[in-house]
Design a protein that fits this description.
Keywords: Cytoplasm, Cytoplasmic vesicle, ER-Golgi transport, Golgi apparatus, Membrane, Protein transport, Transport. By secondary structure, this protein is an alpha+beta fold. The chain is built from seven helices and seven strands. The radius of gyration is 23 Å and the shape is globular.
């Protein structure tokens, strides 16, 4: 890590509607402390206090951001003293935002991981309706990518596995059974009958 870089690399992850600029999802990160840049005694720009502490300032930033990126053909730009990486997908715009001292390659990897994870998760086009209908899942996915501004994972396969991993019904049932109690024995017997009935219906 270079002297000007911080462990807290991501300032914000934002998803906007490319049609009207409305917010679909956003998460802004503020470092828990201000890191001092070695040899300077100053705080790097990337770890300064969040310049968008309330919804009003965030909305102004997001509106200007979409207006700026709508005129661009690339996927990186400087806006409001921030490095912005972005991708357009169907009717949404995905943004990963960092400070001027942050590594744009690292931020770009987060952006790609976000886009690819969404495609893997939904197995279809990533659009506004899908994201809104699966908001909780999208929020969980982003938490698996970045936590408090710290990049945790950029492998889409791993991210999606963590988001979609849910204990099976049988596993949950067994974990709650006490085999040494009378009720536990009855529960195990009932579970066995249920499984046997399933196997018989399947012709096994």
């Amino acid at each position: 890590m270079s002297p000007g870089m911080s462990l807290y690399s991501v300032n914000a992850i934002v998803i906007l509607s490319s049609d009207d600029g409305s917010r679909i999802f956003s998460k802004y990160y503020t470092p828990p402390h201000h890191a001092v840049q070695p040899g300077t005694g100053s705080t790097p720009a990337s770890t300064s206090q969040n310049p968008y502490p309330d919804k009003a300032s965030q909305t102004r930033f997001e509106k200007g951001l979409l207006a700026k990126t709508a005129k661009q053909n690339g996927d990186i730009l400087l806006y409001d003293s921030r490095i912005v990486l972005y991708k357009m997908e169907s009717d949404v715009a995905l943004y990963v935002i960092g400070g001027l001292d942050d590594n744009e390659v690292l931020l770009y990897n987060v952006l790609l991981a976000l886009r690819d994870s969404l495609h893997l998760l939904f197995k279809q086009s990533v659009d506004k309706r899908t994201i809104i209908e699966n908001y909780d899942l999208v929020a969980l996915l982003i938490d698996e990518l970045v936590d408090e501004g710290i990049i945790l994972e950029t492998d889409p396969t791993i991210v999606v596995q963590r988001c979609s991993k849910a204990p099976s019904q049988d596993t949950v049932s067994l974990s709650r059974i006490d085999p040494f109690s009378e009720q536990g024995v009855n529960n195990l017997a009932q579970l066995g009958k249920t499984k046997l009935a399933d196997w018989l219906r399947q012709g096994l």
